[in-house]
Design a protein that fits this description.
The complex is a heterotrimer of chains A (665), B (182) and C (158). With 665 residues, chain A is an alpha+beta fold. Chain A is 63% helix and 11% strand. Classes of the chains: A alpha+beta (665), B alpha/beta (182), C mainly alpha (158). Chains A and C meet through helix 9, helix 13, helix 14, helix 16 and strand 1 of A and helix 2, helix 5 and helix 6 of C.
Chain lengths: 665, 182, 158
C-alpha cells in the first residue's frame, strides 16, 4: 500500500513553483519583447498556476505541522506535539526555512493577483515577469538552499518546539506576516518601475498603476513595525518597544524610503518633476528590504534576533547585489529618457514641502543605515571593534523626527505652485500659536525635558493644521450647500478619500509621536525586592507580594508571583508576572502589563520563583503614554485603509491650464 | 559611454559586496576585542574554590596570595563547548609548568548556581590547578570579560600582557608561557 | 590569612548580592548607556544575563558611594574600553560616525539648493509652444471640462 508522504509532496510543490516562476519570467519577457500576446498570456497563467502550486506546498506544510509529521525536516526541528494548534499553525514562520516559504508564497499570491487584475498596459507583461524573477530567487532558496520539506529517514518522536520567545505570545502570529505582506507589496511598484525603464516609458504610468500597491505595502509595513514593537514590549520583558537593534533598523529603513516615496510620487503626478528621484526611491526601497533580510539572516551584524546562519545569508547577499546593480545600472543607462525639465515656482509650495520630506526621510535612512553598518565598516577598514547603540540613534534622529513633525503640519496647508503670502501668514500665525500654547502648557504642567515638550508643542501645531485643513475644505462647502456640518464632512470624506485618509494617517502619527516622546522621556525603571506577604512602594503604587504559584500544562511549566497593586489604599489590579518554560528550553519571562491611557505599569520577574521561595525580585517599569503608540498605530492603519477604499481618480488637467496661461503671457 | 554610466552603480555594488563578504567571512562579530587591560595591572580578585582544591589552596584564592608569580587566568562555563576543547590543553601545560614560577587559575563564570555542572566539568578533565566559581560575575566584570572561554596572561610584575578569546592552543601556550617566564 | 568560609555560604552571599539588591531608577538610566558584554547588541539595562545583573549592582553601589555618572562610565571603560559605551564617545574613530550624518546632510542640502535654483530659473523662462501645440492644449482642456483651481490651501483631492 502506498503511504502518502508529505515531505516529497511539499518538495514537489516547491520545485514546481520554482519551475513555473522560471518559465513565466522567461516566457513573459520573450512575449513582451516580441509583442507576442500568446506568450504573455502563458506567462500570466504560469503566475496563477505558481500561486496554486505554492499554496498547495504551504497547505502540505500546515498538514505536516498539524499532524506532527516529524519525517518532514522543518517539523522535526521546529515543532512539538504538545504545542497548541495555533502555535503549530504559526510555526510555519517561526524559523528561517518556513518564513522564506511564507514570503515566497505571498509573493506568488501578489504576482497572481497582478497577473489577473492589472489593466492591460505595455508595462504589465514586464512587471509580471519581474515579479516572477523575484519569485525565482525565493523559490530557488526554498527549493535548493533551505528546503523545509527534506525527508528524515529516522524521524524523531518529538521535536523541540519553536523558539520559546515566539510561542510565548499570539502577536508572533501577526507580526512576520504583516512584514512580508509589506515587503511583497512594495515589490510591485519596483517591478513596474523596472518595466517602465525597460520599455523606456518612465512617465507617471508606473506610479499610477501601482499607487494602491505602494500604499498597501506601506500600510502593512507600518502595521508590522508597530506590531513588532508591541510584541517586543509584551514578550521581551525589558519594558521597552524599540531598541535600535539591527533587525528593527532594517525593517525601518525600507519604511522610511517608502514613506518618502508615497509623498514624492505626488510631485511627479502633479508637476511631472522628480521622475528620476522617484525611481531611485522605489529601487532603494526594494533593495533595502532584501539587504535587511541578508543582514538578519547572516549574522553579519550582531542582533538579538538573528536567525541561524547558513547558505541563505550569502544567497540573499548575491541577490541584493544583483538587484542593486541591475536596477541602478538600468536607471543609469536610461538616464537620458528619465531626466526631466523641472521647474519650480517657489520653494514655499506643496512641492517644496515634499522636497523637504524627501530630504528628511533620506537623511533618516542614511543615519539608520550608518549606525547599523558603521561597526562593520570600521572593522573592515581598521580591525577595531566599535559599538553604536540606541543613544547614538536617538541623538542623531530625534532632531530629524521633530523636523518631520514640523513639515507634516505646514506641508498639506501649502498649495501647489506658490503660496499666497496673506494666506500663508494667516496659517503660520495659527500654527505658531497652537505650538506655543501647547508647548507652553506642557512646560507649565512640568514637562521640562526638551523633546517631550517640543513634541507636545508640535502635536498642538499639527492638530491645528488638521483643523485648518478641514475648515478650509468644509467651510466653502457649508456656505454653498445648506446642510449640516456632519453631512458635509461625510460627503467630503467620501469624495476626497485620499486626502481625508492622509489626514487620519497624520493624526495617527501625532498620537504615536506623543506616545514615543513620553514613554521614552519619562520612563521609570526600578528593581524591587519584596518578601511574600510584604509590600513595597513604587512611584505612587503599593505593590504587595501575595503569593507564588506553579502551573503545569502539557505545553509549558509556568511559575510566578501574585502581586496586588493598590494606589492610595485602594486596590487597583492583581498582576501575575511569570516565567514560562516550554519543553527543554530556557525560561522566558512573561511580564504582566497594566494598560492605562496615562501610563502602563509593567512587572517582570527577575528572580526564579518556586514553592519555597520567600521573596520575589521584580523589574518594575512605569511608562507614560506608551499605549498611545499602539492606538496611534491603529489609527494610522485605519487611515491608510480608508485612503485605499476609494476609486482612483485621475489628475485633472489643471497643470495644462497654467501652461497655457504662461505661454500666452 | 555605456561603461562610464554604469560605473557609479558598479562601484557602489563592488564596495558593498566587499564589505559584506568581509562580514560573512570574519565569523562571530563580537569576538576578539582587544582587552582594555593590556599592559595594565591585573585586577585583584577573591575566588571561592571548589572543594577539591581547598586542601592545597584554601577556600578562597586571592590575588595577594599569588603576588610575584606569573598567572594564566582562564574563564570557562559548563555550557561552553570550546571550553571542553581547551581544558585538556590547559591541564597538560599545568602539569608541565606547575613547578615553574606560574600559577594557572580557572574561573567558572556566567554559570550561576551550577555548582554540580562545574564539579562534573572539573572531574571530567581532572583539572588539578585551582578552580573556583565567580557566581555574581564580579570578577568577570573586573577583568572586562566578554564571553567564554577567555584566557588572560599576567606577568610576574602583575601586568596583563595578553588576552586570548576562544580555546587556547598548544602553540599559544608555548609562546605565551615562554614570554611570561623570561 | 585564609578565611575558612564554606564555599556554599560564600556563594549564597554572592547570589544574595546580585539578586536581592533594590535598584533605583537612575541605575537603569546609566545602564541603558552601557553595552552588555556577554550578549549580542543589548544594553545592560535590558539584558538579564548574570553579568548585566552584576553590572547593575555595581552601578547601584557606586551611586551609593556618591560617584558621578562620568566616573561610573570611566570605571567600565577602564575594563572594557570604549566598546562598552552604547553612546559612542565623541573622539577617535567614533567621530566619523557623529560627523558623517552632518556632512551628508549639508551636502544633500547643498545639492538640493543648487537644483532648486536651477528649477526656479526654469520656471521663469517662458514656455515655447507653437500655435498648433497651443491649439491642442485648448482642445484637450475643452474636452476635460476645465476645472477652476480650488481656493489655495484647500487644494482638493490629490
Amino acid at each position: 500500500m502506498m503511504e502518502l508522504q508529505l515531505g516529497p509532496l511539499g518538495s514537489a510543490g516547491v520545485f514546481l513553483a520554482f519551475g513555473l516562476a522560471l518559465y513565466g519570467a522567461v516566457a513573459g519577457m520573450l512575449g513582451a519583447q516580441r509583442r507576442d500576446a500568446r506568450l504573455q498570456t502563458s506567462a500570466r497563467l504560469a503566475a496563477v498556476a505558481g500561486f496554486i502550486v505554492s499554496t498547495a506546498a504551504v497547505a502540505v506544510m500546515q498538514a505536516a505541522l498539524l499532524t506532527d509529521d516529524f519525517s518532514v525536516s522543518y517539523v522535526a526541528t521546529t515543532s512539538r506535539i504538545a504545542s497548541p494548534t495555533w502555535v503549530k499553525v504559526v510555526t510555519l514562520w517561526a524559523a528561517l526555512e518556513g518564513s522564506i516559504l511564507l514570503w515566497a508564497w505571498l509573493l506568488s499570491g501578489y504576482t497572481a493577483l497582478l497577473a489577473v487584475t492589472a489593466p492591460l498596459s505595455p508595462l504589465r507583461p514586464w512587471a509580471v515577469s519581474i515579479m516572477q524573477v523575484v519569485q525565482v530567487f525565493f523559490f530557488g532558496v526554498v527549493a535548493f538552499l533551505a528546503n523545509p520539506f527534506e525527508v528524515l529517514p529516522v524521524p524523531p518522536l518529538d521535536g523541540p518546539g519553536p523558539n520559546e520567545l515566539l510561542q510565548n505570545h499570539w502577536m508572533m502570529a501577526v507580526h512576520p506576516v504583516l512584514m512580508y505582506l509589506g515587503f511583497v507589496g512594495l515589490t510591485v511598484p519596483f517591478a513596474y518601475a523596472m518595466a517602465a525603464l525597460i520599455t523606456r516609458r518612465p512617465g507617471t504610468e508606473w506610479m499610477t498603476q501601482t499607487r494602491r500597491w505602494t500604499l498597501t505595502g506601506w500600510g502593512f509595513l507600518s502595521a508590522a513595525i508597530i506590531a513588532g514593537g508591541w510584541w517586543s514590549y509584551e514578550v521581551l520583558g525589558w519594558g521597552g518597544y524599540w531598541a535600535w537593534d539591527p533587525v528593527e533598523n532594517v525593517s525601518l529603513m525600507p519604511w522610511l524610503t517608502a514613506t518618502a516615496l508615497i509623498h514624492s510620487v505626488q510631485v511627479q503626478e502633479r508637476r511631472r518633476m522628480l521622475k528620476p528621484w522617484n525611481l531611485v526611491l522605489v529601487i532603494t526601497t526594494f533593495s533595502l528590504s532584501i539587504l535587511g533580510t541578508f543582514l538578519t539572516r547572516s549574522g553579519v551584524v550582531s542582533s538579538v534576533h538573528a536567525f541561524g546562519s547558513g547558505p541563505v545569508g550569502p544567497a540573499f547577499l548575491v541577490f541584493f547585489l544583483f538587484v542593486t546593480l541591475v536596477s541602478f545600472g538600468l536607471l543609469a543607462l536610461r538616464w537620458d529618457d528619465v531626466r526631466d525639465r523641472a521647474d519650480l515656482d517657489s520653494v514655499v509650495s506643496r512641492e517644496g514641502s515634499f522636497l523637504g520630506v524627501n530630504i528628511l526621510f533620506v537623511a533618516l535612512t542614511f543615519a539608520v543605515l550608518l549606525g547599523t553598518l558603521f561597526p562593520l565598516v570600521v572593522e573592515a577598514v581598521s580591525g577595531d571593534k566599535v559599538t553604536i547603540g540606541a543613544p547614538f540613534f536617538d541623538q542623531v534622529t530625534l532632531p530629524l523626527w521633530m523636523l518631520v513633525l514640523a513639515l507634516m503640519g505646514i506641508g498639506p496647508l501649502l498649495p501647489w505652485r506658490r503660496a499666497e503670502q496673506q494666506r500663508l501668514t494667516h496659517n503660520l500665525a495659527w500654527l505658531t500659536g497652537a505650538f506655543v500654547v501647547a508647548g507652553g502648557l506642557a512646560w507649565l504642567l512640568g514637562v521640562r525635558k526638551v523633546y517631550p515638550a517640543l513634541t507636545v508643542g508640535l502635536a498642538g501645531y499639527n492638530l491645528m493644521s488638521l483643523g485648518l485643513l478641514l475648515a478650509g475644505a468644509l467651510v466653502p462647502r457649508l456656505r454653498l450647500a445648506k446642510r449640516s456640518a456632519f453631512a458635509v464632512l461625510r460627503s467630503y470624506a467620501h469624495e476626497s478619500r485620499r486626502r481625508f485618509g492622509s489626514m487620519i494617517v497624520h493624526f495617527g502619527v501625532v498620537v504615536i509621536a506623543v506616545g514615543v516622546a513620553f514613554s521614552a522621556g519619562y520612563r521609570v525603571d526600578q528593581q524591587i525586592r519584596i518578601d511574600f506577604g510584604e509590600s513595597a512602594e513604587f512611584d505612587g503604587y503599593t505593590l504587595t507580594a501575595v503569593d507564588r504559584f506553579v502551573e503545569r500544562t502539557p505545553q509549558r511549566i509556568s511559575s510566578g508571583a501574585v502581586i496586588e497593586v493598590s494606589r492610595d489604599g485602594r486596590p487597583v489590579r492583581t498582576m501575575t508576572p511569570r516565567l514560562n518554560v516550554f519543553g527543554d528550553s530556557r525560561a522566558v519571562p512573561t511580564p504582566a502589563v497594566m494598560y492605562r491611557p496615562s501610563h502602563d505599569l509593567y512587572l517582570n520577574l527577575n528572580s526564579t520563583v518556586g514553592p519555597t521561595t520567600t521573596f520575589v525580585v521584580l523589574r518594575v517599569v512605569k511608562s507614560p503614554l506608551v499605549t498611545w503608540i499602539w492606538i496611534g498605530g491603529f489609527i494610522l492603519v485605519i487611515g491608510t485603509a480608508y485612503a485605499l477604499g476609494g476609486s482612483t481618480r485621475t489628475v485633472p488637467a489643471r497643470a495644462t491650464v497654467r501652461a497655457e496661461e504662461r505661454a500666452q503671457a | 559611454m555605456m561603461l562610464k554610466r554604469l560605473l557609479p552603480p558598479l562601484v557602489v555594488v563592488v564596495l558593498l559586496g566587499a564589505l559584506f563578504a568581509f562580514g560573512l567571512l570574519r565569523g562571530a562579530p563580537d569576538r576578539d576585542i582587544e582587552s582594555a587591560l593590556l599592559g595594565r595591572p591585573a585586577p585583584a580578585f577573591e575566588l571561592p574554590l571548589y572543594e577539591r582544591y581547598q586542601p592545597d589552596f584554601g577556600t578562597v584564592l586571592t590575588s595577594a596570595d599569588l603576588q610575584g608569580k606569573a598567572l594564566v587566568v582562564n574563564f570557562w562555563a559548563s555550557w561552553c563547548l570550546p571550553c571542553y576543547q581547551e581544558a585538556p590543553v590547559l591541564q597538560a601545560y599545568w602539569q608541565e609548568y606547575q613547578d615553574a614560577d606560574v600559577v594557572f587559575v580557572g574561573i567558572q563564570t556566567q554559570d550561576r548556581d551550577r555548582l554540580n555542572e562545574g564539579r562534573a566539568f572539573l572531574s571530567q578533565f581532572g583539572l588539578s590547578f585551582p578552580n573556583g566559581i565567580d557566581n555574581d560575575s564580579s570578577i568577570s566584570v573586573d577583568w572586562g570579560l566578554y564571553g567564554v572561554p577567555e584566557t588572560f596572561f599576567v606577568d610576574r610584575d602583575g601586568r596583563v600582557i595578553h588576552k586570548h578569546a576562544g580555546p587556547v592552543t598548544a602553540e599559544l601556550m608555548d609562546a605565551k608561557l615562554r614570554e611570561l617566564l623570561n | 590569612m585564609r578565611r575558612f568560609v564554606p564555599l556554599l555560604l560564600l556563594l549564597l552571599a554572592g547570589l544574595a548580592l546580585a539578586q536581592q539588591v533594590q535598584l533605583e531608577a537612575r541605575v537603569f538610566e546609566i545602564a541603558r548607556q552601557l553595552r552588555c558584554p556577554s550578549c549580542v547588541s543589548e544594553s545592560v539595562a535590558d539584558s538579564n544575563s548574570p553579568i548585566s545583573q552584576q553590572m547593575r549592582v555595581l552601578i547601584q553601589e557606586q551611586l551609593e558611594q556618591g560617584r558621578s555618572e562620568e566616573e561610573i562610565f570611566a570605571y567600565f571603560q577602564g575594563r572594557y574600553g570604549d566598546w562598552i559605551m552604547l553612546d559612542p564617545p565623541k573622539r577617535g574613530i567614533h567621530l566619523v560616525a557623529w560627523l558623517l550624518p552632518v556632512i551628508v546632510a549639508v551636502l544633500a542640502l547643498a545639492t538640493v539648493a543648487l537644483l532648486v535654483r536651477r528649477w526656479l530659473a526654469n520656471s521663469r523662462k517662458p514656455i515655447e509652444a507653437t500655435p498648433e501645440e497651443l491649439e491642442r492644449v485648448r482642445r484637450q482642456l475643452g474636452a476635460a471640462g476645465a476645472q477652476p483651481d480650488p481656493a489655495p490651501g484647500t487644494d482638493g483631492d490629490i
